[in-house]
Amino acid sequence: MSTTGLILLAAFGVALLLFLVIRVKLQAFIALIVVSYIIGLLAGMSPAEVFEAVAAGMGGTVGEIAVIIGIGAMFGEILKVSGGAERLALTLMNKFGEKRVNWALVLTGFIISIPVFLDVAFVILVPILYSLAQKTGKSLLYYGIPLLAGLAVTHSFVPPTPGPIAVASLLGANIGWVILFGLIAGIPAAIIAGPIFGTYISKKIHVEVPKVMLENMVEEAKGKEYDKELPSFSMIAVLILLPLFLILLNTFGGVMLAEDSTLLTVLTFIGNPGVALTITALLTFYLLGTRRGYSKEEIQEIATKSLEPAGIIILITGAGGVFGQVLVETGIGDVLANSMNNLNMPIIVFAFLVASAVRIAQGSATVAMVTAASLITPVIDSLGIGGPMLALLVITIASGATIASHVNDSGFWMVNRFFGMSEKDTLKSWTVMETIIAFVGFGVSLIISMFI
């Protein structure tokens, strides 16, 4: 097939994918598989070659991420059930004081969203926002935007959350480098989109606590004996940071230690993302489960429940691997790489634009990440990109997939409902916050790319 034909075929595939997800409302997993079959056959692959590419793409991707996402989901669920999120928030607010409580909230969101899904963490912590707004009379956005910014940043940028893990797997990036770059890009993004923008927008839009939410939730939050019921702050902080620490030790241990060092061998093993999360999950089950009176059956139920949302993420990521493998087999990656060179477009800009376009078109950040990564993978192979640059591309794609959350995104309606805002005010607050995160993350990634 000609170069023009392959480019048109790639464009057709993306358009068809978006049509199936948006208009036909097919699950993204099925849509990615269907599009992969169609592109492979139209590009001239035989059915046997298509089936082989599908098996290779699914097996290679799922085999790497299933353990990480599955165990990470269990870890996050037991942390949620035990009250770890509330403990983290209350302790940090106490340490920062009333005048800087918005900074405590962005830090709370930044930390807790590492193991706990964004929407789950928000629902857990929103009663605290209601209580603060009621007490001070300030706009709910003054407290809500910092918390949401912290949650959104690590949800998109810092493994072991599913999004960056999925993209890292598809691109073959080192998780340790992804964590490092995610923190470097995420900290300024959270600060600017959180306390700084939150302070500004709360003066423009005064949001009262919705009465129906108050009746259902705030009294329950006020009535809890937090100090008696919740686990200690130090325990929660150690459990959340432990896997990040072990993974980073693995990544950078090779720089400091000899290749034949026994210590390096140990660090390589315990710092493997799957092993690091397994160690953390076992500690969490014991410290927050068994020691706090949960029976084996209750812990089993908690772990099983956590796998429900994890399962579909694993499947979508696997389907993204299939899509990327088919693109590689058809030669589209070489064509896109040549086109980028002719346009003199850096791959980091291309990755951001692709992720942004898919995000705006269909709404889901996870689907945007997986689709963009699938399109970028064959280009990476053609250009021979590797090392830390792959991790930087993960953050770039995550940034693009965060941009401009609007009415086709479930997160938009979650914030709209819990804050009781109009669609216009949600666009002015939540959507702008997400866009700030996207551009700050992309800007930091672009700057770092100049030095690696």
What's a quick, concise take on this entry?
The chain has 21 helices and no strands. The protein is an all-alpha fold and 452 residues long.
Write a structural description.
The chain is an all-alpha fold and 452 residues long. It has 21 helices and no strands. It has helices at 3-22, 28-42, 47-82, 84-96, 101-112, 118-136, 140-157, 162-171, 175-204, 211-223, 226-229, 233-256, 262-270, 273-289, 296-330, 332-343, 347-362, 365-383, 388-400, 410-419, 423-449. Helix 6 packs antiparallel against helix 7. It is globular. The model has no long low-confidence stretch (mean pLDDT 88).
Indicate the topology.
Elements lengths: L2 H20 L5 H15 L4 H36 L1 H13 L4 H12 L5 H19 L3 H18 L4 H10 L3 H30 L6 H13 L2 H4 L3 H24 L5 H9 L2 H17 L6 H35 L1 H12 L3 H16 L2 H19 L4 H13 L9 H10 L3 H27 L3
Helix pairs in contact: 1-2, 2-3, 2-15, 3-8, 3-14, 3-15, 4-5, 5-7, 5-9, 6-7, 6-10, 7-9, 7-21, 8-15, 8-18, 8-19, 9-12, 9-19, 9-21, 12-13, 12-14, 15-18, 16-18, 17-18, 17-19, 18-19, 19-21
Terminus-to-terminus distance: 36 Å
- Unreliable spans are none
**Would you count the extended β strands for me?**
0
What is the residue-averaged pLDDT?
88
Number of helices in the DSSP assignment: 21
The Cα radius of gyration reads 22 Å
> Which overall shape is indicated by the principal axes computed on the Cα atoms?
globular
Structural class: mainly alpha
Helix content: over 70%
Major sheet size, sense and barrel closure: none
Order of helices and strands: HHHHHHHHHHHHHHHHHHHHH
Beta-strand percent range: under 5%
Task: Write a concise keyword list for the protein shown above.
mainly alpha; 82% helix; 0% strand
